[in-house]
Amino acid sequence: MKTRTVRMAAAGVAVLALTGGQLLMASQAQAVAPSAVWIEAGTLRFQDVSNVQNNVTLALVGSSYELTDSLGNVSAQWPCAAVSAHRVRCPAGSVSRYSFSFLAGNDRLVNTTKLPGYAFGGTGHDLLIGGFGAEILSGEAGNDSVMGRLGNDRLYGGTGIDWVRYDDRSAPVRVRLDNTVADDGQPNIGEKDLVWPDIENANGGASNDLLVGSNGSNWLAGLGGNDSIFGQGGNDRLTPDLGKDRVYGGTGAYDYIDYTTRTVAVRVTLHDGTANEGQTGEGDYADAGVEGILGGQSSDYLVGNNGNNVIQGAAGNDRIYALGGNDSLYGGLGSDYGNGGLGSDFCSSVESKVSCP
Question: Which residues are paired to 258 by β-bridges?
């Protein structure tokens, strides 16, 4: 996607909306121009002009749309009116969509309304949270996170390592990073988001989700429910949460099943092909395409397979068994045991080791 071209078309020549020479003093004692808010042909526009961090919320308050930037000053053009240095109200009857454009800084946008529109993050590590209408959210440069919420949204990451987030959902969601088809979101309500392949990472919600990666390196996190997670190509990090999850590594050289956030001991046995991974009674399944294990913060039992594995114990007193292949074993913190098995193996931070230099 040519985000810069789309951005200019949606935002117009926004800088011209500033009143001449209006400046405010920022907390750093530097002169900072306020962001501009105005209505143009039914579009509520916000234009950042100062390369500072913004924290913008859009809300419907009575018969007005209220825009608040808690980190920056805003200026209003009629029929919008300033409520304070950080808040502007615009008549809702004059607005049918929005277009918000940010520049540098780690910006944050939260749209709490049903108003459709566009948001462009600019440079920096941005968080764009849409509302409940059809929206286009583009993180642009930087490591961004985008969340469309309800509505048929188009979600773009831009350059950097980006996330699409569905962690607000309680119903099952489907997220595919491997296509350009509008088939993402909640199938039960007919939602048709388009998650563009320039987004590398995805998390699901609280129910039984389907997460599918791309041919690049992805991080896919299931969160709650009984999730199905497919890494596809690339070296992927696949994170099941509590629930009976099924994890498929794909064709990458090193795909990892990830339990790093767990504070209760986990058991992972890649060699046996059974659904017995995770905490006691959890019942996750990892297929033969998973080559790596990331243990948690307790005393874990981690077993590889006959391929080349990378196994990391992290904290706790871990027991690590690599079996066949040329493996790398990392014990981490704690008093760990490592058994390299057959092949040419490497051990690091393993206090007690067998068949592993």
Answer: 294
Contacts by residues 334-342 (CB-CB < 8 Å, ≥ 24 positions apart): 334/299, 341/304, 342/306
Model-wide pTM > 0.70: yes
Burial of 260 (0-12, 13-18, 19+ CB in 10 A): middle
Q: Residue 312 belongs to a domain with what CATH number?
A: 2.150.10.10
Q: Please check the confidence at residue 29 and state whether its pLDDT lies above 50.
A: no
DSSP 189: G
How far apart are alpha carbons 86 and 100 in whole angstroms? 16
Give how far Cα 99 sits from Cα of 109, 120, 182, 278, 281, Å.
12, 8, 22, 45, 49
For the residues of 1-67, what is the DSSP string, one character each? Answer: --HHHHHHHHH-SGGGGSPTT--EE-TTS-EEPPEEEEEETTEEEEE--S----EEEEEEETTEEEE
pLDDT mean across residues, the chain:
92
Torsion of Cα atoms, 88 then 89 then 94 then 99, to 10°: 40
Angle at 49 between CA 48 and CA 54, to 5 degrees: 40
Within-domain flag for 196: no
Left if phi > 0, otherwise alpha if psi is -120 to 50, otherwise beta: which for 273?
left
Taking the alpha carbons of 32, 84, 14, 66 in that order, is the dihedral positive or negative?
A: positive
Distance between CA atoms of 294 and 268, rounded to whole angstroms?
10
Question: What would the pLDDT profile of 249-295 be if each residue is shown by its tens digit?
Answer: 999 999 999 999 999 999 999 999 999 999 999 999 999 999 999 99
> Which of 108, 135, 157 is the last residue before a domain boundary?
157
Cβ neighbour number for residue 171 with a 10 Å cutoff: 17
Q: How far is CA 109 from CA 175, 332, 347, in A?
A: 22, 38, 45
Could you tell me if 311 and 302 are in contact, meaning their C-beta atoms sit under 8 angstroms apart? yes
Q: Is the peptide bond before 197 cis (omega within 30 degrees of 0)?
A: no
Residue type, 255: D
pLDDT tens string 122-152: 999 999 999 999 999 999 999 999 999 999 9
- The verdict on 150 and 3 lying in the same domain is yes
d(CA 65, CA 72): 18
